[in-house]
From TrEMBL:
One Pfam assignment: HalD
InterPro entries attached to this UniProt entry: BesD/HalB-like (IPR056470), Oxoglu/Fe-dep_dioxygenase_dom (IPR005123)
Protein name stated in the entry: Fe2OG dioxygenase domain-containing protein
Family: Belongs to the iron/ascorbate-dependent oxidoreductase family.
Keywords linked to the UniProt accession: Iron, Metal-binding, Oxidoreductase
Entry keyword annotation includes Amino-acid biosynthesis: no
Species this chain originates from: Ruegeria atlantica
Amino acid sequence: MPEIIQDTDTDMVLSLVDLARYPIADLESAEGAAFLKACQDQMEEHGWCNLDGFIRPEALVALADESNALLPTADVLTIKRNIYQGAIDPSLPKDDLRRKEYTHVATQLADDQLPNETLIQRLYQSPRLTDFVRRVQKKDVLHRCADEFQALNVVALHPGSWHAWHYDTTECTVTLLLQAAETGGDFAFLPNSRTDETEDREAVDRLLAGDMSHTQKFDRGAGTFTLFRGGYSLHGVTEVEGSTPRVTAIMTYDEQEGRVISDDINIRIYGDRVKNILAERAASSINA
C-alpha cells in the first residue's frame, strides 16, 4: 500500500484522487472553477458526469485490493424487486411491466460491513468529496446518506450476473468502479426518466420491454467516478462476461440530513442478515 495513504488524519481526496487532472481540492481556483463548470455542464446536458481515471493508479490498486479482501465476508444476495424498490402499486394493470419484479445476484458489502478505517470509507467520509458532489449537482446542501446499510456499499457482480433496472431510493448517487469486467458490465440508464411528479411512462415501458435504443451507455475503466441522478434515471448494469468480477463502490447522498431508508426496502435488498438485525433490535426495545 502506498506510503501516502497511511496517515489516518489525511483527507483521502488528497491521497487517492488524481488532483492534477481533477482539482476537486481547490475549486475556487481558476482551474478548479473551470473544471467544476465543465462537470456541471455535462450533468445538465446528459444527466451524468463521468470522470475517467479519477483515482490515481497506485491508489486504485490499494482500493481494489482492500475490497477484494473484504468481499469474501460479504453475503451473496439474490435480490428480487421492482424498478421502484418498494411494494407493487395495486392500481397498475395486471400486465403492466412496472409490476414486474426483477432478480439479480450480487456479492454485496453494506455500509455496516465496511470498517471506518478502510480507505473507501475514508474517501466517502471526505468533506471535500461531499462538497464536490454537492456543487456538481448544484445543491444548496448535500449530506452523506444516514442509512446504516445503504450509505456506502461495495458490490461485486460475477460473470453471468447483471444489475436489474431500478431507481435509487435517494436522488444523488455516485459510483466508483474499482475493478472492471473483462467484457460486459456496462452501466446503462434512461436519463431523467421521472421527476417527483411524473414519469416518462412510454420510455420506461419501452426499456422494460427490451428496447434499449433510448438508453445511454459509456465506457468506464477502473478508477472511473460517475455522478448521476439515480433517483430520477432508471438504470442498471448489463451482464458481466469473462472471468473477472466487476467491483463497484456505491456512494449515496441526500439533501435531507438524517434520512434513512425503510426497513422493508433494506430487507428486500440485504436479506436475512439485515432482517435479523432489525428483528433483534425491535425485540431488545420491547424488553428494555
